[in-house]
Description:
Elements: E1 4-8, E2 20-25, E3 28-36, E4 42-49, E5 54-60, E6 66-73, E7 80-82, E8 88-94, E9 102-108, E10 114-118, E11 123-129, E12 135-141, E13 147-152, E14 173-177, E15 182-189, E16 193-198, E17 205-206, E18 215-220, E19 226-231, E20 238-243, E21 249-253, E22 264-265, E23 271-278, E24 282-289, E25 295-301, E26 307-309, E27 316-321, E28 324-329, E29 335-340, E30 348-352, E31 358-363, E32 366-371, E33 378-382, E34 387-394, E35 400-406, E36 411-418, E37 425-432, E38 435-439, E39 445-450, E40 454-460, E41 482-485
Antiparallel strand pairs: 1-2, 3-4, 4-5, 5-6, 7-8, 8-9, 9-10, 11-12, 12-13, 14-15, 15-40, 16-17, 16-39, 18-19, 19-20, 20-21, 22-23, 23-24, 24-25, 26-27, 27-28, 28-29, 30-31, 31-32, 32-33, 34-35, 35-36, 36-37, 38-39, 40-41
Amino acid sequence: MGASELRVVATDSASKAAPRTIWKHADVRSVTPWGWSPDGKSIGALLLRGDDSNELVWVAVADGAIRPLKSLAWRRPRNLDISPDGRFLVYDLPVSDTAPQRDIFVMTADGTREFPLVRDPADDYAPLWTPDGQSVLFVSKPDRHARLVVRSGCRGASERNPGTRKARPRPGAAAWHRQRRRALLCERHGQDDIYTAALVRGAPTRLIEKFIGRNSAPAWSPDGRLLAYYSNRESALDIVVRTVATGSERVFSGSLLDLRQGLRWMPDSKSLLVIAKDPPAGAVFSLLDAATGSLRPIARSTLTMPSLAVPPDGRSFLVASVGVIRAYDVATGDAREVYKSPPGWILRNLTISRDGSTLAFSERTVIYTLPASGGEPREVARMTEAITREGLAWTPDGRYLLFARSASQTQAELMRVPAEGGAPESTGLSGRGLSLLSVHPDGSRLAYTLGQYFQWTCGPSKTSCRPQGSAMKLLAMLATATALAWGQSSFPPRPWPRRAPARAR
């Protein structure tokens, strides 16, 4: 992948200037801009380095010079805000690597002094300066309900005003509505968890008991010793590789990966097939080492909404997308076409039988099988309801296909159908948002996700929480905004990008 770049662009309608790259570095995996200094000469940014460490810096707009502020090691803020006068930064950080709670800190803009603004057992996060620069608005969650809280900022005062209203569990962020000058509480609705059950008529039990409500997309390794899954432990989804026997885990950052599809193991159980993000070139199919987290790029592709499958020999992998299935050589990255569909088909939920002889995929509400070497697809089952995302899997003996159908807007049901075709039958498993199936290699049980699509809503609070003083450069967020996403859906809503001060143009 290419180096991360920080760019600026003029926003006035008269300017026709192209975006200008002010900074890039091959050893930095990502750069996240958080705001402008009041004089418009610097941009506050967070660097994610190759060793997964994070660093707060100022980047000079004129020449891209970096002025380090603080190394955060593995910790990563969910939100960072610069005070109106540019003298202070406020941000949240996790209290430990095993708990989701966060505390809030204030640091001088030159990085010489830092002090905790909020340090208590509650989960405190998403801080923003009030427009007068005298206080900090943040979300506090002492229990299952969240509240907006205002605390005096620069002096670290201990007073704490009661919050605005009880919200649903796990909201995402606080914000100011600039025109109405009142606080908004942005809430996240929904959660995901990983469950396991016997294939037929089994009683489901939750498989992961850490970071409950934040885990999804399980994938058993071919040898059955490891379980990989997504976990929202920070401000982005991470990949977790769990040793089944001991419960020990390795966590790898997902910030540079496209995690909209399920995880796929390579046959040796040593690496995962993932998609790295490289916007200029599209997707980069890569191997993630399950022990070290290192990435090895294999091939670039511009396929839309790819669905992946790995044959048992591990020499290639298959990708289904809009109208086509392609095979990519792992050693060379060369691609060949396996199947080209009729116009208008969107091929999803690609999966391959244990012996590698047969593919299965869905096209809207129809399930097909196809020889792995190519040929014509054969219809196996036609449903009236949609098949859930990543909701198709082979049983290890190759006799049945398991699939999750959307029984209603909220409920999904796990079905099975003979691979040779026949009447689908229920397995007895159902639940809200049942999807992302993974059958254990011994064929005894299934791991899957229960939950729902996440929805963000931002609404006005019921407290006055109205700062005195003129409005300033803080974000202007609509009174009601909704965003839906799959997989990456656990990101909190980010403020609209701020413009540089007018005098800096």
